[in-house]
Hints:
Elements lengths: L3 H4 L3 E9 L4 H12 L4 E6 L6 E7 L2 H13 L4 E8 L11 H4 L6
Antiparallel strand pairs: 1-3, 1-4, 2-3
Amino acid sequence: EVALARIAPHITVFVLVELEAHRADSFAVFERHIEGCEAITNAWALGGGFDYLLQVLARDIADYQRLIDGLLEARIGLERYFTYVMTKEVKSGPPPLELLLGQRPD
């Protein structure tokens, strides 16, 4: 695990995304575009009220805003987005393999 804060100042931003259209080709266009965005470090398709959750690493808010402006200008079907800046990491750890495998830890 890398201690990013020691390497370079940065912010972590989570972005909830809603697309204009909910068709397979619309999802494909959006997904293809964000694959090329280095600052988007993780992306998850969601069921429910929003279409995607993005995790973004940026140097600062201005850097993040440039990324969002670029996504909007790219005309990839982004209808709305909601920004959540991480203020503190509370918990981080490996996946709970025993739980996933149905085993109880001693």
